[in-house]
Structure formats: structure tokens, C-alpha cells
Amino acid sequence: MTKYILLFSALSLSLISHSQYKKIDSYTINEEFIVNVGDELTIGEPSSNSSEYLYIYIKPSAVVSQKIPLGVGVQGGVFEINELKELKKPVGGLRGGAAIFKIRKAKFMVDLENAIKSGEIILN
User: Fold this and answer.
1) In contact, 54 and 113? CB cutoff 8 Å
2) CA 40 remoteness from chain centre
3) Which end of the chain, N or C, is less surrounded by CB atoms within 10 Å?
4) In which region does residue 7 sit, left (phi positive, over 0), alpha (psi from -120 to 50) or beta (all else)?
5) What is the mean pLDDT of the chain?
6) Spatial CA neighbour of 116 closest among 38, 68, 45
7) Inter-residue contact 57 to 103 (CB < 8 Å)
8) pLDDT tens digits, one per residue of 43-92
9) Which residue in 62, 75, 67 sits closest to 98, CA to CA?
10) What whole-number distance in Å separates Cα of residue 23 and Cα of residue 26?
11) Listed residue (40, 24, 34, 18) closest to 83, CA to CA
């Protein structure tokens, strides 16, 4: 019985996080930048005092449901945007578009507007 409750909980979290976003091919930020799937982004400086990235974190999933920020060691790295998603409605301070990229096998999600403003990412 416990297995079924855990499985149901994991599936529910996955569906909830998936249903908040719609998949898109391009996203316009403040009528200045157009971001497309396949574009590259460069990791800039962390914006927190603890040397963590506030707007780049492991993509939430059934396995990882909490925000785990990107740590140090990838500054200056260039990564290809694999997916773009747009929030259907603002949730917990997050609004607008999100880019998804991979570092090795881990998928990371970027709050595009805040990450650009803070300098955590630079669009190439």
C-alpha cells in the first residue's frame, strides 16, 4: 500500500509541474531578445551571496520536486537550449519563459527574464 501512495504522489508532482508550462519554440523578452530552441546561452556570474545561481536550477521532476540551484564551477560554460516553456499563469514569483538545457545528463531550468537581468546568463 505504501508503494502505491508513493507512486501516486510522484506521478501527481510530475503532472502538476508539467501542467504549469506550455512548450514553445521561441520566446520574446521585453521586446528586445528573441530566444529560440537551439540558441546558446553562456553561464554568467552567480547572483546570490553564497555563490549559487538563484535563477538556474535543476529542472523539477517526479524525482526532484524542490528547487536545487546550480552551484559553482560552470561559469563561462556555453550550453544549447533544448526546450523552451512558458508559464500558463504566474506561480510563486516565477512568470514568463523558461529555458531548459543539459549539463551532462542533468536537465537545468532557467527563469529567463530574471537570469538575464541578474547576469546569470548571457544570450549569444
Assistant:
1) no
2) 14
3) N
4) alpha
5) 80
6) 45
7) no
8) 999 988 888 899 998 877 756 667 788 888 889 999 999 999 988 776 65
9) 67
10) 9
11) 24
